[in-house]
Amino acid sequence: MQKEIESKIKSFIINEKSLETAKLFKEHPPKWNDQNKRLVAQISCPPDAVHSGTLSFSRWKSFPIPENVDLGSNLKIQSKESFYEYGRENPNNNIYDWHLNFAHSHLFIAYSSGLFAQDEMQVTEHPALGSLREWLNNQKEIVPLTRTSEGPTPILVRGVERRVSIDTTPNLKLGRPEGLYGNNFAFASQKAIRNATKVINPPTISNIMAMEAPTGGRGFYSRKDIDYCFSALYSGFYAAKLDSEKAFYEQEKENENEKENEEKIQKPIVIINTGFWGCGAYGGNRQLMTILQILASRVAKVDEIIYYTGDKKGTQIFDQSLKILESIHKDKTQQKTEEILQKLFEMKFKWGFSDGN
Q1: How distant, in Å, are the alpha carbons of 19, 168, 298 from that of 171?
Q2: Which has the closest alpha carbon to 207: 76, 82, 100, 111?
Q3: Among 92, 198, 297, 352, whose CB has the most other CB atoms within 10 angstroms?
Q4: Which residues does the UniProt record annotate as the domain PARG catalytic Macro (predicted)?
């Protein structure tokens, strides 16, 4: 099994690098241009802060799309009427939680600015991602792109510390009447930023998957856009599965002697945490993006997808999306991937509008 995984990884990985977090942070500190982000950095990384662990970076080619979708797979699907949760307890060290980063084509390109959309918020809470971007800026052989003219090139970052949580919800009493999401963050008072920022001690560890959605569409989705979305999602999810399995089996090998008298864990559990990818600033269609992510999870054969809907309206859209998907495959357990993508195209999903963030 391990050799098979290593063979697939070798064929599709473009770059990979393991970096000691403490050394990375010391040699390539994040460069925060926004005063409120500098304030958060003072809270998350004071002078006596201890950075530990190893951060694993990898950039991947697109995987060829499998011919069939197994609609009878054991994929667990759940929605949460909230925003991202991190730090799942994992006593057996066999759960690999991956959180989608709604990326720009240039990885973490706006992390230091006053913008505070999903991508930038994730970097602010995981400041070593800013250090990673600064390190990448000095690399000639590694291009920090999540897509090229040839297609998606998803990027994975495994093992990054989450040092603070920032509450973006509106709260008049705490000085954020409109919340802190998007452009509101840069205009908030420093008192409001302090009130919203909570130190995580000790830091939890997150795994980040960065992919860019298509943007700027008008009217109905083209088949080309649908194909790109599915390719990006499947490639990212499958890369996360392979990377998780690699990490798991390497860990098992290291702990082999310690586990001689224990029951061995058979395999890692791979979980995708996501939401309405590409449906904010990029103006994507929420139903279509939901359907494609569930399909990609099935094809990639991950174990679970947790979909954060944000609010009641988001939950309604999620539920509607599941019904649409059920109407496509009905009682079939397997269906041609091409047939499903074509049916989605024929349904004429409309592009939405940017939310300005």
Answers
A1: 39, 9, 39
A2: 100
A3: 297
A4: 245-313
Structure tokens at 324: 């649409």
Q: Which helix (H) or strand (E) holds 329?
A: helix 312-329
**Domain for residue 6, yes or no?**
yes
Q: How far apart are the first and last CA of the chain?
A: 44
Helices first, then strands: H and E counts in the chain:
11, 12
> Domains in the chain: how many in total?
1
pLDDT digits 0-9 by tens, 263-311 = 555 789 999 999 999 998 899 999 999 999 999 999 999 999 999 999 9
**Alpha helices by DSSP H, 126-222:** 128-137, 184-187, 190-196
CATH of the domain at 321: 3.40.220.10
Domain assignment present for residue 148? The answer is yes
Whose structure tokens read 């920032």? 166
Q: Which domain holds residue 212?
A: 2-256+265-346
Residue 352 lies in a domain: no
Q: What are the φ and ψ backbone dihedral angles of 84, each rounded to 5 degrees?
A: -45, 135
Q: How far apart are CA 316 and CA 307, in angstroms?
A: 12
Which residue bears the tokens 């989608």?
Answer: 100
Express each pLDDT in 156-174 by its tens digit.
Answer: 999 999 999 999 999 999 9
